[in-house]
Amino acid sequence: MGQVSLVDVSKRFALRVEKEVHVVNALNGVSFDVKDGEIAVLIGPSGCGKTTALRIAMGLETATRGRVMVDGRTVTGCGYDRGLVFQHAELLPWLTAFQNVMFGLEMKGMRGAELKDTAMRYLKLVGLEQSANRRPHQLSGGMKQRVGIARALAIDPAVLLMDEPFGALDAQTREGLQAELLDIQARTGKTILFVTHDLDEAVLLADRIIVLRAGSLQEIIEVGLPRPRGDLAAVRGSAEFAETRYRIWKALHQAETTH
Amino acid sequence: MTDNATAGRSAGAPPVPDVEPPKARQVPGWLITLLSLALAIGIWQYFGRDVNPVFGSYPSAIAAAFWEMLVSGELLSALFESLQAFLVGYVLAIVAGVPLGLVIGRSRVLEAALGVYVTAAYAMPLVALVPLLVLWLGLGFWVKACVVFLMAVFPVVINTWLGVRAVPKALIEVGKSFVAPNHVILRRIVLPATLPYIMAGIKLAVGRAVVAMVIAEFFTAISGLGGIIINSANNFETARMFVPIVVLMVLAIGLNWLVGWVERRVAPWQFEIAGRE
Question: Which UniProt keywords apply (chain B) (predicted)?
Fold first, then answer.
């Protein structure tokens, strides 16, 4: 299982700028559901609260109001039912790719042969078994992020939370990883909550797109593209792709005019 | 992405002509250091001979005094005596300083409560306190070890503390996201991330510990290498006075090298990231 619900989540905090205290409404009563086995994409301009929402879902930050439920349980902190993929991979630089994947498993209490086998299985899943003994600085940006994905998946979470994981990569690497993520999702059936500001990426990956604007839910858009998506180049050329992309674009810009 | 990943790594394979060797060989650093030393010693020797032997000395005279003191056994017994107090104080400084720096860096409360003492104690004029320490600990081994400890511990604490503060928040969050308890985050993430800073602190402590040892030997029971320095100076035997000074400097260089060697063993990634040997 892997069902996520955000129920009326708000995040407000005071920020002191110079001598004035500003109240920042990072999130205003945001509610949405992610169904089991679905890829949901949170999209919006920077500062719209999408990363805050993801971090609250992970348990790294707390909501001022409202709550996050994963498979019916309220999130009170980090847990092995959720795996986080960081924006810049954040591999531990003193560990090899293999040891980085083992890290989360060790924290979960896995030991011995099972630990090594599991870590290697997930490195294979992301196609990096040949580079198992390299340290992060010997890996390209795309390879680092694959290790980050393997590390998060290895603990077998119900939900994978991804914070703009491909944002810092070049266009070609990004396309490769998008296809790979869809493939991994098809094989593992994981529920994924994915944060991005890239419209194309949102449409390519998502079953459901949650548009955020200035901390408020703007619109939820169901993507009609079939699964598996197959050839992504063809998907990009399809009418459905263009139409959905335009709907997100409109949702983002409508918001601009009303504010 | 893994196309030629392992091609260059197979150790026994014959060299491939189109592949550049792992690193280009230049004039080795140790050779440059040796040439620099030879030049400095040569200049000192050339001009040093013209100086009145009470006011100065020169390498060949120091070498002669060194040989004489080595053969008589005086130098080695003094060195042995000094090194014991030095090593005990220095090792205790590392053993106490690293954990203290780690917890001060990690805990806001401890930082506020203890940081001020550490910062102040780093600047403490220790020489002024030696008479007091002698009253507490006597004139023997432990007062020397204590002076060395007090001089060496603070650079270790401060460097470790600064290193902990420099650990990227995201790496801590990696630990948190896998539900690691605080002490595991400290040991598995903060400690390795801080190692380069810790090693820098340990290196800085070498110099301070050597100075502390000599101070201790001046002001407590006159003994060891510091004792030779002060006795020779009192007798205007300048060449003899320089022997322990040179020995101490060589010792410091050796210890620095040793710490560097240990660093390469325990934190090799740091050198690889910086792209230096």
Answer: Cell membrane, Membrane, Transmembrane, Transmembrane helix, Transport
